[in-house]
Design goal:
Elements (H helix, E strand, L loop, with lengths): L2 H4 L3 H9 L3 H23 L2 H17 L10 H32 L9 H18 L3 H11 L5 H8 L3 H31 L1
Helix pairs in contact: 2-3, 3-4, 3-5, 4-5, 5-9, 6-9, 7-9, 8-9
Length: 194
């Protein structure tokens, strides 16, 4: 990395990266790859996973370079991507451990369910529980969208609502589901590891 590039601000690097400047991308990579590696290693405890995380974050930055916002912190973007990766990794690890533990207790593994099926059914059960707590209108909108595959326009027409109302209700519902799933996952991690 040249001395000239070392002094360039992240925002200027993002502008250059958006214009397909590979040197600027390399400068950004050199600036943050070791920091992200050691940050992720603290949580993952696995060298190869931490290396894979760094590669994934920077591949994501390059693949989505056209949509990067030069007014926002690319450092925050990279760390948020790293946190999401760590979250998903730990979530899969906890689910895998729970599944293996439950099968071991039974004495033999006689279930044909794969890890993905177990994860899907747990997730589906959690989402259904959350959806049942919603007001009836929000429940209808969510079910029409996710279970019947209707578009926002079709839902609006069927329920005599504006498309914007349907969009707002779906946004709120999905945000609530995401937040509840994250809280539930963190709680289950705490119960699993402590």
């Amino acid at each position: 990395m040249s001395d000239e590039n070392e002094n360039i601000s992240d925002n200027l690097l993002v502008i250059r990266i958006k214009n397909d400047d590979k040197t600027a991308f390399r400068t950004l990579y050199d600036r943050y790859n070791k920091k992200l590696y050691f940050f992720s290693l603290k949580f993952l405890g696995n060298n190869s996973e931490a290396e894979e995380l760094v590669q994934s974050v920077f591949i994501n930055v390059w693949e989505n370079r056209k949509s990067l916002d030069s007014t926002l912190s690319v450092k925050n973007y990279a760390y948020k991507a790293a946190v999401n990766y760590i979250y998903n990794y730990l979530k899969k690890k906890a689910i895998r451990a729970r599944f293996i533990e439950s099968e071991t207790v039974k004495g033999e593994i006689h279930s044909n369910l794969t890890y993905e099926e177990v994860f899907y059914h747990d997730l589906e059960r959690s989402v259904n529980t959350i959806v049942e707590t919603l007001p009836s209108q929000q429940q209808k909108i969510f079910k029409l969208s996710r279970y019947e595959g209707l578009t926002n326009k079709e839902i609006a027409s069927r329920l005599d609502l504006s498309v914007r109302t349907v969009e707002n209700q779906m946004y709120r519902t999905l945000k609530l589901i995401r937040n509840n799933l994250k809280e539930g996952f963190i709680l289950s991690l705490m119960l699993t590891f402590f």
